[in-house]
Amino acid sequence: MIKAGIIGGSGYTGGELIRILINHPQVEIDFVYSTTRAEKPVTDAHEDLLGATDLKFTGTINPKVDVLFLCLGHGNSKAFLDTHTFSDNTKVIDLSNDFRLKNDATYNGRKFVYGLPELQKEAIKNANNIANPGCFATAIQLALLPLAKNNLLTEDIHINAVTGSTGAGVSPSATSHFSWRNNNISWYKPFTHQHLGEINQSIVSLQDNQPNIFMLPQRGNFTKGIFVTSYLKFENSLEETWNLYEDFYVIDPFTHLSEKEVHLKQVINTNNCFIHLHKHEDVLLITSVIDNLIKGASGQAVQNMNLLFGFNESDGLNLKGSYF
């Protein structure tokens, strides 16, 4: 049994992390840190956990926990590690974008390994600190990496990626407000989204050339999930392509190919990524779907923790979604 600490436990990703860890067979939550909610019950922020836990938020930390999860806003993880010291034996899993790129991967003596299990499982097993991938980046990479592994991303790639409102975080904003988001759709950060950096980094780690990626992120009028369609000109047959994907994901418990078209309700509240392949003349369409808060954040963080500590990769993550 290992002890875990959570920094930033009152947000959406923190809440999902608590939900998973209180049922994990190998983990005890040692503390959930919050300076604004110290001594208040965790159920004040996550009301659905009533009866499931009596944890309280705390304003103090245990520097000797076995694993520390940083569920902070982008840029805040570095600031937190600047002002708090932990044991050399404490493994850190960061859910922000602070350490995902190679130029940022070493900080305050800690070296962070990019934590996409389907890409570099063995490196994660031998790591001490993990930079958890972004939610868009997870869904897009899982759609593209089998092709990169075989040097087949040679044409421009066009991506439409729609995310739910929880992707914007728990603090309300003009574009996450219900009256604006409901019955509405819009794009943002066209072709410049920050997750492109980690996507490109992973692709060039597998193939010789860097393809052009035109990514159009969109805000959907739903709360959870990411629905991604990626398409490019492609010569190989659908059968050949399917075999490449099967081979790439043969040892991965959460990424699955579907012969039928996929949709968000299949993966919400699970750690799964479902992928569908479709060929139209000389164009390959790849659809990938995930829950942005689980496979795109907290579930993947626990998956990484399992690999770090030698647990079964699926421990605590056999989550059952609700189809309706």
Automatic annotation (TrEMBL):
Enzyme type, top EC level: oxidoreductase
Q: In which pathway does it act?
A: Amino-acid biosynthesis; L-arginine biosynthesis; N(2)-acetyl-L-ornithine from L-glutamate: step 3/4
Pfam families on file? Semialdhyde_dh, Semialdhyde_dhC_1
Main site of residence? cytoplasm
Key words, A-Z: Amino-acid biosynthesis, Arginine biosynthesis, Cytoplasm, NADP, Oxidoreductase
Q: Which reaction does it catalyse?
A: N-acetyl-L-glutamate 5-semialdehyde + phosphate + NADP(+) = N-acetyl-L-glutamyl 5-phosphate + NADPH + H(+)
Please list every transmembrane segment annotated in the UniProt record, as residue ranges: none
Q: Which residues form the Semialdehyde dehydrogenase NAD-binding domain?
A: 3-127
A GO biological process of this protein is: L-arginine biosynthetic process
Location relative to the cell: Cytoplasm
GO annotation, cellular component aspect: cytoplasm
Q: Name one GO molecular function term.
A: NADP+ binding
Q: Which residues form the active site?
A: 135
Q: Which SMART domains match?
A: Semialdhyde_dh
Q: Does the record carry Hydrolase as a key word?
A: no
Keyword Mitochondrion attached:
no
EC number of the protein: 1.2.1.38
Q: Explain the purpose of this protein.
A: Catalyzes the NADPH-dependent reduction of N-acetyl-5-glutamyl phosphate to yield N-acetyl-L-glutamate 5-semialdehyde.
The entry's family comment says:
Belongs to the NAGSA dehydrogenase family. Type 1 subfamily.
Q: Which PANTHER family match?
A: N-ACETYL-GAMMA-GLUTAMYL-PHOSPHATE REDUCTASE, CHLOROPLASTIC-RELATED (PTHR32338:SF10), N-ACETYL-GAMMA-GLUTAMYL-PHOSPHATE REDUCTASE, CHLOROPLASTIC-RELATED-RELATED (PTHR32338)
Question: Per its record, how is this protein called by name?
Answer: N-acetyl-gamma-glutamyl-phosphate reductase
Species the sequence originates in: Galbibacter orientalis DSM 19592
Gene name per UniProt: argC
